[in-house]
Amino acid sequence: NEILNIAVSEGARHFVVEDKEGNYRGMIQLSDLRYTHLNEQELAPLIVAADLMHTDVPTLMPNESLDLAMKVFGDTDAVAVLDPEDRRKVTGVLTQDAVIEAYNRAVLDVEMVESTAGLMVYAEKAKIVDLGEHTALMELEVPPAFHNKKLKDLHLRATYDVQVVLVRTKRTGATDTGDSEGHKQVPGPDFILQSGDVMLLVGSKEGLEKIAGE
After folding, report:
1. In what order do the strands lie in the sheet with 198-204?
2. What number of other Cβ atoms are within 10 A of residue 136's Cβ?
3. Residues contacting 203, CB < 8 A, separation 6+
4. pLDDT tens track for 165-176
5. How far apart are CA 210 and CA 164, in angstroms?
6. What is the DSSP letter of 88?
7. Rounded Cα gap, residues 1 and 80, in angstroms
8. 60 and 69 in contact (C-beta within 8 Å)?
9. Could you tell me which residues are beta bridge partners of residue 198?
10. What is the pLDDT of residue 154?
11. Continuous H helices in the chain
12. Of 157, 173, 168, whose CA–CA distance to 211 is shortest?
């Protein structure tokens, strides 16, 4: 019941679970509460955080790369970031939403100074934000070779060391975020890419350049 109240009052989607000494124990996602919420009268008073938390969710250190974080996001949309001085302590939580927001800020900053010599590189069909350490974010219209294919069938991570983190589409039925340029959604493995969709990808620069040339 306490967890459900926090989710409602704080608008929280992810929960870090700690023991009495403040040591990290695991993570709870909002989706973990859905079954409990539907059966609240019977289950909510009986279930505690230890019953819901995932102890196998990977964690990150503050100095680890965004490329590594995005690979972790293949299994979850939020990860705990641990204190390098004491790996039992949590210093924060990194989410996919935060990564996408950082990308949007980077694009806006570069466009404001109207420079293509620094962070942003414009290709014929793509724009790339250099994240350093051979990693980049790229926004690209779906190339013809990917049309009408499911993400899981493209094997982007294995083939290009690249992952799709967001798709902007004008198709009806997509999640509406109020963006006049199109609906944005985090695609699942069965998401079918279509002509006109725009992908936000993260991964190795070499892999991104190969996809841009498809």
Report:
1. 120-122, 126-132, 135-141, 198-204, 162-169, 183-185
2. 24
3. 67, 70, 135, 136, 156, 157, 160, 161, 162, 163
4. 888 887 655 443
5. 14
6. E
7. 23
8. yes
9. 141, 168
10. 92
11. 2-10, 34-38, 40-43, 49-52, 66-72, 96-113, 151-154, 156-160, 205-212
12. 157
Residues 107-130 have pLDDT tens digits of 655 554 444 344 444 444 567 777
CA-closest candidate to residue 49, choices 105, 114, 4: 4
Cα–Cα distance for residue pair 121/61, rounded to 1 Å: 29
- What's the pTM value of the predicted model, to 2 decimals? 0.55
Contact between 135 and 202 under an 8 Å Cβ cutoff? The reply is: yes
Amino acid at 75: D
10: burial class by Cβ within 10 Å (0-12, 13-18, 19+)?
A: exposed
Structure tokens at 61: 């250190």
- State residue 123's pLDDT score: 44
Quote helix, strand, coil % in the chain, to nearest 5: 35, 30, 35
Contacts of 68 (CB under 8 A, 6+ apart): 60
Q: What is the DSSP string of 135-164?
A: EEEEEEEPPGGGTTEEHHHHTHHHHHSEEE
Q: How far apart are CA 46 and CA 177, in angstroms?
A: 36
